[in-house]
């Protein structure tokens, strides 16, 4: 029945589907099925393009759902938004998903690491440049915005043969504390050590995104 309604009403069905999803999340109903039907409601015919207004309506509907369901269900909605390329809308849900991780000024804390690896006289060495990153809940993923500044820090393996462009990684979600970042860095350090590298770590200047 939901599918028939969606086929007929198209984007106009988003309102009723939104309400239905919220109810379904509360009583164990077909939550995921309704989300798929919402996507279908704005999916154009083969070869067509979804109107911008329909995209915005779908995003707003998903945000409304996420603010009225459990955190677990809200994470499902946020992932759906991010996977569809609506990362800005997904980022608006971060305070809902991680309320206990909000830092001073309403910002979120992430970790970033740039790995400088090289051959140093026959010995494999890796220097991990690490930095705290803060973001005002504007980005679902901070990697793209920190790659350039992380690769731009002062190299440490100056007398070594470089293995190429530095790999850059960021924590996949906001961190609760600086201690959580230390644990993440320790894992990266171990991974490189297990590969046979002599590893050192240096802390770089914090990156505050706007």
Write the layout of secondary structure elements.
Elements: H1 2-9, H2 14-27, H3 31-42, H4 52-66, H5 71-83, H6 87-91, H7 94-97, E1 108-120, E2 123-135, H8 143-151, E3 161-162, E4 167-170, H9 178-194, E5 198-203, E6 207-208
Parallel strand pairs: 2-5, 2-6
Antiparallel strand pairs: 1-2, 1-3, 1-4
Distance between the termini: 45 Å
Task: Kindly estimate the percentage of residues that lie in beta strands according to DSSP.
Answer: 15-25%
Q: Count structural domains.
A: 2
Query: What's the number of extended β-strand segments?
Result: 6
Question: Residue share in helices?
Answer: 40-55%
Q: If you compute it from the alpha carbons, what radius of gyration comes out, rounded to the nearest whole angstrom? A: 22 Å
Overall spatial form: elongated
Task: Describe this entry's structure for a reader.
This protein has 210 residues and is an alpha/beta fold. It folds into two domains: 2-97; 104-208, no CATH class. The protein contains nine helices and six strands; from the N terminus they run H-H-H-H-H-H-H-E-E-H-E-E-H-E-E. The chain has helices at 2-9, 14-27, 31-42, 52-66, 71-83, 87-91, 94-97, 143-151, 178-194, and strands at 108-120, 123-135, 161-162, 167-170, 198-203, 207-208. Strands 1, 2, 3, 4, 5 and 6 form a six-stranded mixed beta sheet that branches. The longest helix is centred in the C-terminal third of the chain and has 17 residues, at 178-194.
């Amino acid at each position: 029945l939901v599918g028939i309604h969606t086929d007929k009403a198209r984007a106009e069905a988003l309102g009723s589907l939104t309400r239905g999803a919220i109810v379904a999340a509360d009583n164990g109903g077909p939550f995921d099925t309704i989300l798929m039907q919402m996507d279908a409601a704005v999916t154009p015919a083969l070869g067509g393009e979804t109107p911008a207004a329909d995209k915005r309506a779908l995003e707003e509907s998903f945000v409304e759902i996420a603010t009225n369901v459990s955190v677990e269900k809200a994470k499902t909605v946020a992932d759906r938004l991010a996977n569809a390329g609506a990362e800005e809308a997904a980022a608006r849900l971060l305070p809902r998903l991680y309320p206990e991780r909000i830092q001073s000024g309403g910002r979120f804390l992430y970790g970033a690491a740039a790995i400088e690896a090289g051959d140093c006289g026959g010995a494999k060495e890796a220097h991990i440049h690490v930095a705290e990153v803060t973001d005002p809940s504007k980005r679902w993923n901070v990697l793209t915005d920190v790659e350039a500044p992380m690769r731009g820090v002062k190299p440490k393996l100056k007398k070594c043969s470089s293995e190429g462009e530095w790999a850059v990684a960021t924590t996949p979600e906001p961190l609760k504390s600086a201690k959580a970042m230390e644990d993440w860095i320790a894992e990266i350090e171990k991974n490189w050590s297990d590969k046979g590298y002599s590893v050192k770590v240096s802390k770089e200047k914090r990156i505050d995104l706007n």
